[in-house]
Structure formats: structure tokens, C-alpha cells
Amino acid sequence: MLAIALFGAGRIGRIHAGNIAASPRARLAHVVDVDAGAASDLAARHGAAASDVATALADRDVGAVLIASSTDTHADLIEAAARAGKAVFCEKPIDLDIARVEACLSVVTDTGATLMVGFNRRFDPHMAALKAAIEAGRIGRVEMVIVTSRDPGPPPRDYLERSGGLFRDMTIHDFDMARWLLGAEPVRIQASASRLFDPGAEAAGDHDTAVATLETAAGQLAVITNSRRAAYGYDQRLEVLGAAGMLRVANPTATTLETTDPAGTLVERPLDFFLERYREAYRLELEHFVDCVLDRVPPRVTGEDGRRALLLADAAYLALDEGRAVEIPD
Amino acid sequence: MLAIALFGAGRIGRIHAGNIAASPRARLAHVVDVDAGAASDLAARHGAAASDVATALADRDVGAVLIASSTDTHADLIEAAARAGKAVFCEKPIDLDIARVEACLSVVTDTGATLMVGFNRRFDPHMAALKAAIEAGRIGRVEMVIVTSRDPGPPPRDYLERSGGLFRDMTIHDFDMARWLLGAEPVRIQASASRLFDPGAEAAGDHDTAVATLETAAGQLAVITNSRRAAYGYDQRLEVLGAAGMLRVANPTATTLETTDPAGTLVERPLDFFLERYREAYRLELEHFVDCVLDRVPPRVTGEDGRRALLLADAAYLALDEGRAVEIPD
Amino acid sequence: MLAIALFGAGRIGRIHAGNIAASPRARLAHVVDVDAGAASDLAARHGAAASDVATALADRDVGAVLIASSTDTHADLIEAAARAGKAVFCEKPIDLDIARVEACLSVVTDTGATLMVGFNRRFDPHMAALKAAIEAGRIGRVEMVIVTSRDPGPPPRDYLERSGGLFRDMTIHDFDMARWLLGAEPVRIQASASRLFDPGAEAAGDHDTAVATLETAAGQLAVITNSRRAAYGYDQRLEVLGAAGMLRVANPTATTLETTDPAGTLVERPLDFFLERYREAYRLELEHFVDCVLDRVPPRVTGEDGRRALLLADAAYLALDEGRAVEIPD
Amino acid sequence: MLAIALFGAGRIGRIHAGNIAASPRARLAHVVDVDAGAASDLAARHGAAASDVATALADRDVGAVLIASSTDTHADLIEAAARAGKAVFCEKPIDLDIARVEACLSVVTDTGATLMVGFNRRFDPHMAALKAAIEAGRIGRVEMVIVTSRDPGPPPRDYLERSGGLFRDMTIHDFDMARWLLGAEPVRIQASASRLFDPGAEAAGDHDTAVATLETAAGQLAVITNSRRAAYGYDQRLEVLGAAGMLRVANPTATTLETTDPAGTLVERPLDFFLERYREAYRLELEHFVDCVLDRVPPRVTGEDGRRALLLADAAYLALDEGRAVEIPD
Prior knowledge:
The structure is a homotetramer. By secondary structure, chain A is α/β, with parallel strands linked by helices. Chain A has 2 domains: about 1-115, Rossmann fold (3-Layer(aba) Sandwich), CATH 3.40.50; about 120-280 and about 310-325, Dihydrodipicolinate Reductase, domain 2 (2-Layer Sandwich), CATH 3.30.360. Chain A is built from 13 helices and 15 strands. In chain A, strand 11 (about 235-240) and strand 12 form a beta hairpin. The two termini of chain A are about 40 Å apart. Chains A and B meet through strand 14 of A and strand 14 of B.
């Protein structure tokens, strides 16, 4: 049984708390949050203690920490936990600054700590089935990857101002998908981005609509299309063209009900947003992390994956600003 | 080049006229109709002569006749044409009376005439693909056949009064489908029928909704469900369960356009009615008939197929009237 | 918090035990089974006591019993629990003999006990969405219901011998679906059944393939098609034709993955069997039962629903044996 | 009745010849080809004369010419036909050199000739339905367009060497789609292209896989993904995201047959290539051209559309060569 200390009692922290509590191999030991009331409420719901960082890290029963607090705390908490000998699960991103990320990863390496980064989509059953089909050779060599990723609606302006921008906040998941599905590192990126509908994005100097194109050294291409608004819900699709065929993952719906009437045949719209769409992904991600710690399995998503995705986001901004193709540093 | 005399210049006659005219191996020589104006118009459109029956049958250039006139003329015209040495294509049914059908088929046999009956659905590319998949062994032995057949709306009362009733007018096509897909003769039938919405059916002593269940000697089952109304268009689907899998044919749509919005994802409704749905089936059926005559190929739909379907319709009425399972005579 | 005693620690009992343990408003207090080891194991897994019937019913903390033991124990246990003042959830059927069912329901009525019968499909999100769409008037008056229900493979012969036959064991769920979706009681039934592939069914005097057709007094029709084998998995579909349109529920799949290659586009097959297909239905059914007991809500599936479904099964056998339409007794 | 002279008796010329012959308002008067045998054969099949260019243009009965000869003859033939007072339908491209295109269009303007360019996809019923849905306001303002366009397999190397390269030969159709669906002119383009599988493309200095991203002044984005190979057939899909929803057009299949077996549910693969996929588009395109000439309707695809698509292809090559975003000249 792995005792876990959770840092962050917000929306995503509550998801993880529920999954820890429901896991047959884990228990929630501490909840830490700057909002003491939020920490106590969540701790009480799952029989954990509301603690501060020092107490949680000093608890020798605690084998792992799960970091779901605000982005600017991630790197410090990773380092502190690693130094305290805990395994670490950290929500993306490690930090918005690549130098800070690299410094943090050095500490992780030096301490030998286990670090897993929360690219939850790799655990989504639909997307994992697509990856498994690639690995089973069902479409031969991957030639082109197309990632469609659209939120149901834009976040508030103040969120955008702290987010690092669309490419670092939203596309970062899609960069990880592209790397994962290409099976090779992108070496070059181009980007386009617009402000089409969100005054908040305009005010924050951010964008609401974007396209990024990646190339690997072998010439495989990946295209990511993003929008902060899809009137019909959360739109998360993958398409991979290979030498021998094509794989696609569509948006699951809540039910298979179809209505046929004079207007046509209507099926349900996609699920609303990530909490519904990736509910199972969050659960499986947590189970994998528990397995990593208890069974000493290497994490399927590493700190290096987090760093690579941020490198791509940074390069996307450089490409966008200079209107040119940018080489991805190593 | 096969010269064809067409009897009947109504809706279905015009379809056949167009297909004859467009066929590379046939030409329309005569059009005969009790409505002389209709005959002249249709003849003029395709460079044929408006004639009477005797003239058309006496024309030694005419190799075949196509009978699309009213049902009560079919058997007489088949006999006259067979005796005149012409090949015959006749729209279903041969007659509404089984004794008359059998007498007519005797004449056909005695004269050695080629007779093909217009069960057009066997030529529909979708349905033909399903039949081919059965014959290719894709689902093993056929165990159950389900035929869904619903018209967009009920016909006028006076049509119903001359139609022989739902089972002889509408289900007769589905009986042919069931026989064809079972690959064996049904030996037993049960039936249910209702008047749910059509005052015309009520007035004519007919039904608007029905189910028939067929069994073969080996125990294979077929279910036919009928309605004279489907708010969403013409509904013509097949499903076949076999030992190794299931085959299905859905309603084709005019285009693949999908709209996704907050209400869900909407695709087009089925095509309106048989003239759109079976346009290609009518064309291929005619081509097959031309091949039968010119290349001495046996017709894929025979007079015996017409007789068997009518036997099933008659048995369905007996089953309905007596509320019991009825054995199908041979 | 509702304390529940579970009778039966077999496959279905274990499902319910898990759902009781996971429910926020219920806990598993006792597990009773003729196999003492099975009872102890399951009790231990969820912190319950392995007990006998008398002990469980004498426990004043226990508010409800869940009966998932063998069919021949159902009626006795219902009566004992009702007399002990417990609310009762009983897996279908109450009994295979209609007189015993009616005697049992008298006891339930006399004691005023809450009784819910386990027609789990009503709680399946897909099927419940279809029912809700009917009730919202989306297709107007219901005219025809089509229930497709096929198991992945036949059960063992000894199961069949105790099962009461296909109509009482398998179709009984479909009879409940038909009644529920028609929104009116069937008054008449016809049936066909075959032995096409299962030697066990042959040996047990049972069938492996069947069709039943139901009619209501108003003339609405329902068709149920059953097979004990579907090579592609568990096939559970509904279709309802109404005055204004059609509703359908398809088989959900584990993922939305599609592979397109020279053979075509392949999507996943249906889920394997009822434990996967109806996992969520079992959970929601249990939650509803807990709500019924704690909040004094009337159960959505009653003892009368259980009795009506058995009446239909009995009538189906009479119809089958006598080859005729049979009126359903009240 | 419009008499048409056809220049070019190759694959695409034969398609047009058949559509002219089948049109109720047109007839094929002349066929001209450098291969005299091909011209005579095709002329004979449709009752036309095999002629030379001068004879065809001198024929006062001829109202229009259809140019389906090799690309390097297009501009000269357009000019000659325009000067001879004929209406002109020309297959894309007008020329591979933009200066030559512009000179040719000057002649067209000066002579007042009607010129229509063969961007046949605008007439495809599926794609036209999508465009109509945009114009009907079904998804509000267009924000992003995604054009998927993949050939079943690469053309021969010698074709590639004369083709002007992937962007001018293949993507040119997709550039036209993007302009049409955006409803505004792209002002900026970026491009990526690879040689992943086709030795012929390698040898010819061409590419086999490519992505192009377009932006309008308002910030709308369009993404085109191309491959010269799709193992599963001809892949031609559109997706348009708007403020209020999304429209998509999928690949039509020959039939709706579905096979469900232990491997899953299989539907047919896309149609093989453009002759099958766009058969109806070619027919409707020809009908529109005939209407343009006979009814003095302005063509829905103009010489300017041809020029704009070539400008985009040229800009795509500049963007590719210099690894930067390129502004589109006017």
C-alpha cells in the first residue's frame, strides 16, 4: 500500500485524490494546499491529514507525492520531494522556463528519484489502443500524425496570463502526443496562430486558434490543430497515416443513442471536457504511477518527456514570432 | 441490340424506358399504354413508336417485352408475349391470384419463353454485396435473416384497394429477400398486422404495420418488419446472422456530410423513396435482362420466384386470419 | 448508510458486492452462500461477515437483502426477508413457476416490504437514454419495438436444464424491455424457436435461436430476436419506431479506434458479455435500490414487472407448442 | 444543343466525352488529339469527327471547346479558342508558369470569352453539400479548414517530371478547396514536404508527402495534408470548424455493407481513385459549363480561380525552399 501526499486540492487535485482513495494499492495520507479549507475538506473526505509541505515530506510512511498545485510551485516541490526520497508524480508542466526545468531534472537525476509527468492522454484507452496498434505494426511505418485538440471554450483571462500561452498550456499535451505517435523526435517546427474570437486571449497577448507542423529527421510529418472553442464540446482526435493504412481515434460519446427523423440521424455530441473525457485516463495514469513506485517499473512518461514538450512549445513561439521554420534544440 | 416493347408508361414504365434507352445493348421500340397521350409522350422522348399490344407483339424486330402496366394485365400480357416468341420482363406481381399465376407460368413453360420477374432489390449494389458475402462464406451458415422495410408514407386508399393488401403489395419484395438470403425455402409462416395510423388502410380493410416470421425446414428463421410510414424516409435494411458473424446493409444517404454542433452529430436521412433508393438497381436489373436475352443467360429472378413470393403472401394472410402458424404449400 | 446482506457469492453476487462496497450510501454487512468458502472470501474482501440466512435476517442493522443465489431459493428468501422487515432486491426470476411467484408477491404485499427485481438493462445508460427520448416525445407514439439479444455463446447443458428454457432464462430480459418500451401491456404473443447449433440445447430439450412477436391492445408490435451465439460478442440492441421517427441503441465498444487498410475500415467488436456490457447498469441499479430504501422512493422495477415477464415467457412456450397466437393472461 | 470540340482523348478526355454525349443539352462535335488513333476511336464512339485544332475552331456550329490535352498546350489552346469566339472549359492548370497564365487570361478578358477551369471537386455532391451548409450559416463564421487529400499511389516518374511538382499538380486542387471554403483569400503560407516512400519522387526532385498551412487576413487558418500514397484507396476529406459547430465530409463507399465478426465490424474502404470518386462531379461540372454557355450564367470556377491556386502553389515552393512564411502576392 503506497501512502501518497497530495499537493494541491483544486479541480485536478480532487480527481487524483479520488483515484488514490479508490486504488487497491494506494492511500491518501496528506493533502497540502495554500487554501487550508480546501485541504481540510479534501483530506476529510478521504481520511487523510491536512498538512503542510514539510510535515508531508517528513512523514516516513509517505512513499510518493503527487503535485497538482499551481505551475510556479512544481519545480520547487519536485526538488524538495526528490531530496526527501519520495517518488514524484507531477502535473504538466514542470515549469514554464526551460532552464528551470533542466535544473530541476538535474536534481531528480542526482537524487535518483522516480519522476513521472502527467501527460494523461497516453493512458486514455482510445489513444493507448491506437499506440498499441502502431506498435503491433498494423499500419507499417508512421508517415503522418494529425492531432486535433479543441477545448469547449476559452479559459478566463487571468488563467491565460499565468498559463505561458496556448502552446505551453494547451498544445503541450499535443506535442507529447505527436512525439509519442511519431516514435521519433521532431527536429523542426513551424507555427501559425490567430486571435479569432476570445477577447481574453487578445487582452492577454495570447491566441485562441493555432496550427503547428513538426518534422522528424526522417521526414515524418505531424500536424496539430488547436482551438480554444468548439461549440460541440471537447474535441480530441488522433489520426495516423502509415505505409500500410490509417488509424483513427474519434470522440467517445456518453451513449450510442441515435435518433432518425426528417432532419437526419443524430448521435450524441462529444463529452464536455477533460474531466469527463479523460476520467479513465486519470485513473489508469495513477495506477501506473503506483505500479512504478511499488514494483520499480520505469514510468511511461518521464521528466525528459516533460522537457521535450516544453522545448517544442518554446520553439513554436520562436517559429511564430519569426515566421520561419525553427530547429528543435536537443 | 435488343429491341424492346414497353407496356405501361406510368411512373415505373418511365424508369424502365430511360434505362432501355441508356443501355448500350438495347433500344426502346414501342410504348403501349391505355393512356394514348402518355404512350406518345414517352415514345417520343426515346425515339420509339406509340403502338398497341398487337402491333408491338407482331413486330419481328422486337425481341423482348417489358411489362409495367397495371397488375390485372400482367398475366395476359405475359402469355401473349410468350406465345409471340418474345422474352418477357414483368414487374411484380404476375397476378394477385395464385391459380392465375400458375396457369400463366404453364404457358411460359410450354412456350419455352424467357421470363424474368422484377424483384429489383436483388440488383441493388448494397443488397447484392451482402448476398455475395454470404456466398463467399464470410459468416458461415445463415441462421437468422432480418428484413426491415418501411415506406415513407402510405399510398392512397384507391391504390390500397387494388393492391391485394400489404403482404401481397409491399411485403412481397421482403418475402423474396428472405428466400434469397436464407438460401432455402420457408416451410412455415406466422404473421401479425395492425392499423395504427392510416385511415385509408382502415377503410380499405388493409393494414399499415406488420411482422411476418418464416422458418425453413432446417430451423433457420427470418423476420420481416413493415410499416407504411417512416417519418425519416424510405427505410430498407437487411441483417443476416450466421454461424461466424453478422452482415448488415444500412440505408445509403445522398452525401456523407456530418454536422456537429451542441445538439450532436447529424448525418443525412435515408433517401426518399424507391425511385431514388433503387435507381441503380433498376438499371442493373434491366442490363441483366438484356444479357439474359442476348446471351441466353438464365434470369436471376424467375417466374417461380414470383410464384413463391405470392405463396408466402397468401400464407401470411391465412396465418393472420387464423392466428396460427401456417405451412407453406409447395 | 444502508447495511445490506447479500445472499449468493457467485459471479453475479460478486458484482453486487463490489457495487455495495463502492456505494457512498451502502455497506456490505453479511455474505451468505451454501459454499462457505465463497462466502468467507467475498465477505473478507469487503469487510463483511460470512453468515447464515437466519443470522443475517436477525441483524437489526441490516436494512435490506440482495438475493443473487440460485433461482430455486429466490421466492423463499424473498418471503423470509419480507417477513423480517427487510427491503429486498432479487435477481430475476422470482421463480420459474408463476403460481409460486404469485404466492410470493402476496407475502410481499401483505408485509408491505419494498421489492425490486433485477432487470438491470433498464439502468444501462444507453437503453435509459432511449427510454428518456421516448418519454420526451422525440418520436411520438411508439408503433414498433425491435429487441435484438444474442449471447456470445451457449451456456453449459446443466445450466440449461435448470434454466426454465430460453424464453424464461434469456428472453425474459427482452420481454421486460419490450413492455418498458411499448409503454403498454402486450396482450398477444407468437413464437418460433429452433435448435441450430447447440448440442447442449438439443439434449436439454431447449432451443438456441428464437423469435417472439408481441402485440398490445392498440396494435403496437414488438419483435424479439434471440440467439445463444454471436461469433462477434454480446449483441444487445434496441430499435423503436414511432410516429415521428426512430430511436436506436447500438452495441458500445471498448474504444473508438478505427483501422483503415486495403480490407476496409475496421472498428471494434461489441463488448464480450454482460459483465462488461452492463457493468454500469449494475452499479446504477444498486444505487437506485439504495435510494429506494433510504429515501422511500418506489422501485423502478417491481415484483409485478417480474411476474409480467414470466407470464410472457410462459405464454411464449404455449404459443410455440401449439403453433398459434396466445392471449396473455392478466 | 451545344456542340463541343474536345481537345485531348486521354483518360480525362474520355470522361468528358462520355458526359458530353450523355448530356441532354450538348453533343460532341470534334475530337482532336496528337494521337490520331485515339481521336478517331473516341470520335467514333460518340458520333463525332476526328479533326485537327484549326478545323474544330473553324466550325461555326461549335460553341465551346473542352481542353483536356497535355498541360503545355492549355494556354495556347485557350487563346486560340477565345479568339475564335468559343467558350472554353480547360482542365487545370492553365499553365505551370504564372506569367504565361496571366498573359493567357488577358487574352480571355480582351476577347470576352467565357472560361471555366476544371476544379471538379466543387461539383462533388458531398463537398458541395458542405459548402452549402456553410453558406446556410449552419456553423457560423469559418475559423479553420482542414483538407485531407491522399492519392492511392504515386504516379510514374515521367509524369512527375512534367507535373510541376506536388504542390502544382496535386495540392492545387486542395488550394482551390481551401480558398473556396475559407470564403476569403489566403495572405500567407507555410509548407513542409518530404520524400518518404517514392523513389520516383526522389529521382524527379519531387516530394511524396506534404503539409501546407494558409492564413487569411482575418486570421482564419487552413491546413492541407497530402500524401501520394494511401494503402486504403483515394482519401479525400474535408473538415471545417466554425464558431457554432463543425462540418465534415467523409469518403463515400461503394456500398453500406458491414461485416461483424470476431475481428470487429468492417465497412468498405474508400473508392479507388478520382475516376470513381468524382464521376458525378465530372458530370455536374460539365452540365454547369453547358448551362454557362447556353444560359449565359457566369462560371462557378473562373480563370482567376486557376491563377490564384497556382499563385498558392508557387508560394508554397518558395516557403518550402526558404523555410519561412511567405506572403501571397495579389
